[in-house]
Amino acid sequence: MRALLIILLLCGIVIPERRYRFTNIKCNVLDKSYVSFAQCKLKVIGRGIIALTIDAKLLTGPFNNAKVNLSLWKKYSEFRPFIFNSSLDFCKAMACTNSTLTFHRIIYRAFLKYSNINQTCPYDKELYVRDWVLKEEQLKYLPLPTGEYQVRLKAYTDNECKATVYVNFSVKEDLMQS
Ligand SMILES: *[C@@H]1O[C@H](CO)[C@@H](O)[C@H](O)[C@H]1NC(C)=O
Ligand SMILES: *[C@@H]1O[C@H](CO)[C@@H](O)[C@H](O)[C@H]1NC(C)=O
Ligand SMILES: *[C@@H]1O[C@H](CO)[C@@H](O)[C@H](O)[C@H]1NC(C)=O
Ligand SMILES: *[C@@H]1O[C@H](CO)[C@@H](O)[C@H](O)[C@H]1NC(C)=O
Ligand SMILES: *[C@@H]1O[C@H](CO)[C@@H](O)[C@H](O)[C@H]1NC(C)=O
Question: What angle do CA 92, 118, 158 make, to 5 degrees?
Answer without folding.
Answer: 40
